[in-house]
Design a protein that fits this description.
2 domains, alpha/beta, 354 residues, binds ketopantoate, N-(1-d-carboxylethyl)-l-norvaline Dehydrogenase, domain 2, NADP, binds NADPH dihydro-nicotinamide-adenine-dinucleotide phosphate, globular
């Protein structure tokens, strides 16, 4: 059993949307917090920043300890070892992050992997076999409304994995970090919870191709039908693996595709909670595509395809949408019709193979 206490050093590695929101929410509670960011974002963050959420909670952080990746790797770095190392880079940044976090890690460091999708923690565990490595599920969306203003635009509790070794410490951590800006809980069944989140993240690729806010996307039945196709395949794979998906929205996992297929006027009535999202929310993949960055498609839709292959289950919709997202990395080679924004009708025809 490991004893650890919430007031020990929290370090957030990868100060982007989730990292800044999480780090800000921890720091504002009075816990020692350091953000590790890129050189290019340091000046913005050292001026302090602001957190808000969709329920009008807010906090202003006049000062927070920010170090950039160059300071971290410098031989005379004075950066403290982390007790809680929150890894908030994208899945595709994990390989490099594993090397770069070395100066922050000692035997006591607990590494908390906050990635969407499946499997990012495996490489971290392999690189740090003597450390406690726990997974974290982040259900809510964060956007940067203006430089240094991070906004949580949707509901849900950040959930930390509990293992037999971590139980007491994680329960104490959860109680201590709990706040209006950061609702938080823990689970002993992270595998199933991450599959349930994976199901929801199937909307990310559609959102990136639609190139409109999530709320506006969900208001169009054609996009919803595409998401329903992707989710149907995901559920088939999860069922074959005998994973029982916990309910992470008001609608249970197996009913979501059916609800998504409903005509607009019934959908608006049945799924009004689902539409309670800020109108400015964009999925993380939509940000990546609009900024020309690589996406997490291989860890989201790709994770389903990997399992499907080993189970011999066909997932044509996920295959098709993964191809469309991959093609965006060579945007110059695409026709106008293949570039976002892609209309709901066109996308539905492509994905359903019509
Ligand atoms: N955004 C959201 O609303 C949600 C995101 N998630 C998940 O959370 C994870 C983080 O997402 P998000 O916050 O959006 O990602 P961001 O890209 O906004 O943040 C990651 C940050 O880490 C930086 N970074 C990456 N590698 C390094 C490194 N080696 N050294 C220093 N800095 C580094 C990135 O810089 P650079 O860009 O220059 O590489 C970037 O600033 C993802 O897995 C995502 O799917 C989950 C739920 C919601
Ligand atoms: C919050 C959610 C589900 C969609 O916005 C997400 O995980 C993301 O943007 O990556």
């Amino acid at each position: 059993m490991t004893d650890f206490f919430p007031w020990e050093q929290h370090t957030i590695f990868g100060a982007g949307l989730i990292g800044c929101y999480l780090g800000g929410a921890i720091s504002v509670q009075g816990f020692q917090t350091t953000l590790i960011c890129r050189v290019t974002t340091k000046s913005k963050l050292t001026l302090g920043f602001k957190l808000t959420d969709y329920q009008d909670h807010q906090a202003v952080l006049p000062k927070i300890d920010v170090q950039d990746d160059k300071q971290l790797s410098s031989p005379d770095s004075t950066v403290k070892k982390a007790r809680f190392l929150w890894l908030t880079v994208k899945c595709i940044g994990i390989k490099q992050a594993i090397l770069d976090i070395a100066p922050l890690v000692d035997i006591q460091t607990i590494i908390l992997c906050c990635q969407n999708g499946l499997g990012s923690e495996a490489a971290v565990k392999q690189a740090y076999p003597d450390n406690m490595v726990l997974r974290v599920m982040i259900p809510f969306n964060v956007v940067e409304i203006s430089p240094g203003h991070y906004h949580r635009g949707s509901e849900g509790k950040l959930t930390i994995e509990q293992t037999p070794q971590s139980q007491i410490g994680i329960s104490t951590l959860v109680m201590a970090l709990q706040s209006e800006l950061l609702p938080i809980s823990s689970t002993t069944n992270m595998d199933a919870l991450l599959w349930a989140k994976l199901q929801l993240n199937l909307g990310n690729s559609v959102n990136a191709l639609a190139d409109i806010p999530v709320k506006a996307m969900l208001e169009q039945r054609g996009y919803r039908k595409v998401i329903a196709l992707l989710m149907g395949e995901c559920l088939q794979v999860a069922d074959a693996l005998d994973i029982k998906l916990p309910k992470v929205t008001v609608i249970s996992a197996h009913k979501i595709p059916m609800v998504l297929r409903l005509p607009n006027f019934i959908f608006t009535l049945v799924a009004n909670k689902m539409l309670e999202i800020d109108p400015n929310v964009l999925s993380s993949m939509c940000w990546d595509v609009s900024q020309g960055k690589p996406t997490e498609i291989e860890h989201i839709n790709g994770a389903i395809l990997k399992h499907a292959k080993s189970l011999n289950i066909a997932c044509p919709a996920n295959e098709k949408i993964s191809d469309l997202i991959r093609q965006l990395s060579d945007i110059k080679s695409l026709t106008q019709e293949q570039k976002p924004p892609i209309s709901a009708e066109v996308l539905l025809n492509w994905v359903s193979g019509k």
